[in-house]
Protein backbone atom coordinates (compact mmCIF):
# COMPACT_ATOMS: atom_id res chain seq x y z
CA UNK A 1 0.00 0.00 0.00
CA UNK A 2 1.43 3.34 -0.99
CA UNK A 3 1.37 6.17 1.53
CA UNK A 4 -0.59 8.43 -0.83
CA UNK A 5 -3.24 5.77 -1.36
CA UNK A 6 -3.61 5.21 2.37
CA UNK A 7 -3.96 8.96 2.99
CA UNK A 8 -6.56 9.34 0.25
CA UNK A 9 -8.70 6.44 1.47
CA UNK A 10 -8.47 7.54 5.12
CA UNK A 11 -9.24 11.18 4.24
CA UNK A 12 -12.39 10.10 2.39
CA UNK A 13 -13.47 7.88 5.27
CA UNK A 14 -12.86 10.57 7.91
CA UNK A 15 -14.81 13.09 5.82
CA UNK A 16 -17.71 10.64 5.53
CA UNK A 17 -17.58 10.12 9.30
CA UNK A 18 -17.71 13.90 9.85
CA UNK A 19 -14.35 14.16 11.62
CA UNK A 20 -13.48 17.89 11.65
CA UNK A 21 -10.51 19.36 9.77
CA UNK A 22 -7.87 19.70 12.52
CA UNK A 23 -8.54 16.24 13.96
CA UNK A 24 -8.63 14.82 10.41
CA UNK A 25 -5.25 16.39 9.61
CA UNK A 26 -3.69 14.81 12.72
CA UNK A 27 -5.04 11.37 11.78
CA UNK A 28 -3.73 11.77 8.22
CA UNK A 29 -0.25 12.65 9.48
CA UNK A 30 -0.20 9.66 11.82
CA UNK A 31 -1.41 7.24 9.12
CA UNK A 32 1.30 8.58 6.80
CA UNK A 33 4.00 8.01 9.40
CA UNK A 34 2.82 4.52 10.37
CA UNK A 35 2.49 3.33 6.77
CA UNK A 36 5.87 4.85 5.88
CA UNK A 37 7.50 3.08 8.84
CA UNK A 38 5.94 -0.23 7.80
CA UNK A 39 7.17 0.21 4.23
CA UNK A 40 10.69 1.15 5.30
CA UNK A 41 11.23 -1.21 8.23
CA UNK A 42 9.05 -4.29 7.70
CA UNK A 43 10.41 -7.24 5.79
CA UNK A 44 7.05 -8.37 4.40
CA UNK A 45 5.29 -7.40 1.21
CA UNK A 46 1.81 -6.86 2.65
CA UNK A 47 0.68 -3.96 4.83
CA UNK A 48 -2.90 -3.44 5.93
CA UNK A 49 -4.60 -0.52 7.66
CA UNK A 50 -7.70 -0.47 9.84
CA UNK A 51 -9.59 2.49 11.28
CA UNK A 52 -12.24 2.56 13.97
CA UNK A 53 -14.12 5.57 15.25
CA UNK A 54 -16.00 6.20 18.45
CA UNK A 55 -17.53 9.49 19.53
CA UNK A 56 -14.28 10.39 21.30
CA UNK A 57 -11.49 8.94 19.21
CA UNK A 58 -10.14 7.39 16.04
CA UNK A 59 -8.01 4.24 16.31
CA UNK A 60 -5.51 3.54 13.54
CA UNK A 61 -3.92 0.12 13.11
CA UNK A 62 -1.18 -0.63 10.59
CA UNK A 63 -0.27 -4.29 10.30
CA UNK A 64 2.78 -5.60 8.51
CA UNK A 65 3.04 -9.28 7.71
CA UNK A 66 6.66 -9.63 8.74
CA UNK A 67 7.62 -7.08 11.33
CA UNK A 68 11.33 -7.35 10.74
CA UNK A 69 13.85 -7.26 13.58
CA UNK A 70 13.13 -5.44 16.82
CA UNK A 71 10.26 -3.25 17.92
CA UNK A 72 9.62 0.29 16.73
CA UNK A 73 10.98 2.96 19.08
CA UNK A 74 10.55 6.70 19.26
CA UNK A 75 13.60 8.41 17.77
CA UNK A 76 15.11 11.63 19.03
CA UNK A 77 16.96 12.88 15.94
CA UNK A 78 19.11 15.99 15.98
CA UNK A 79 17.90 19.19 14.32
CA UNK A 80 19.77 18.51 11.06
CA UNK A 81 18.91 14.83 10.64
CA UNK A 82 16.60 14.02 7.73
CA UNK A 83 14.89 10.92 9.20
CA UNK A 84 13.73 9.44 12.49
CA UNK A 85 10.84 11.71 13.45
CA UNK A 86 7.94 9.42 12.49
CA UNK A 87 7.13 7.84 15.83
CA UNK A 88 8.04 11.07 17.61
CA UNK A 89 5.18 12.70 15.67
CA UNK A 90 2.88 9.74 16.31
CA UNK A 91 3.58 10.00 20.04
CA UNK A 92 3.05 13.77 20.05
CA UNK A 93 -0.30 13.65 18.21
CA UNK A 94 -1.76 10.51 19.78
CA UNK A 95 -3.45 10.09 23.12
CA UNK A 96 -1.96 6.58 23.14
CA UNK A 97 -0.03 4.27 20.81
CA UNK A 98 1.73 0.95 20.92
CA UNK A 99 2.77 -2.27 19.21
CA UNK A 100 0.93 -5.59 19.38
CA UNK A 101 2.29 -8.90 18.14
CA UNK A 102 -0.06 -11.00 16.03
CA UNK A 103 -0.36 -14.50 17.52
CA UNK A 104 0.81 -17.50 15.48
CA UNK A 105 2.50 -15.55 12.68
CA UNK A 106 5.40 -13.15 12.21
CA UNK A 107 3.32 -9.98 12.07
CA UNK A 108 2.74 -6.96 14.26
CA UNK A 109 0.27 -4.13 14.53
CA UNK A 110 1.39 -0.60 15.32
CA UNK A 111 -1.63 1.32 16.56
CA UNK A 112 -2.45 4.85 17.62
CA UNK A 113 -5.51 6.52 19.09
CA UNK A 114 -6.31 10.17 18.48
CA UNK A 115 -9.16 12.44 19.51
CA UNK A 116 -11.90 12.57 16.88
CA UNK A 117 -12.52 16.24 17.67
CA UNK A 118 -9.92 19.05 17.71
CA UNK A 119 -7.90 19.64 20.86
CA UNK A 120 -9.37 22.24 23.20
UniProtKB/TrEMBL annotation:
<keyword id="KW-0723">Serine/threonine-protein kinase</keyword>
<dbReference type="GO" id="GO:0005524">
    <property type="term" value="F:ATP binding"/>
</dbReference>
<protein>
    <submittedName>
        <fullName>ATP-binding protein</fullName>
    </submittedName>
</protein>
<feature type="domain" description="Histidine kinase/HSP90-like ATPase">
    <location>
        <begin position="3"/>
        <end position="99"/>
    </location>
</feature>
<dbReference type="InterPro" id="IPR003594">
    <property type="entry name" value="HATPase_dom"/>
</dbReference>
<keyword id="KW-0808">Transferase</keyword>
<dbReference type="InterPro" id="IPR050267">
    <property type="entry name" value="Anti-sigma-factor_SerPK"/>
</dbReference>
<keyword id="KW-0547">Nucleotide-binding</keyword>
<dbReference type="Pfam" id="PF13581">
    <property type="entry name" value="HATPase_c_2"/>
</dbReference>
<keyword id="KW-0418">Kinase</keyword>
<dbReference type="InterPro" id="IPR036890">
    <property type="entry name" value="HATPase_C_sf"/>
</dbReference>
<keyword id="KW-0067">ATP-binding</keyword>
Amino acid sequence: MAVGTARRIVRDLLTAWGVPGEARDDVLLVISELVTNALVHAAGERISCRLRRTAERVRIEVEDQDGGPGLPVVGRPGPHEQHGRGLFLVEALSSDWGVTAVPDRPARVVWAELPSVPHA
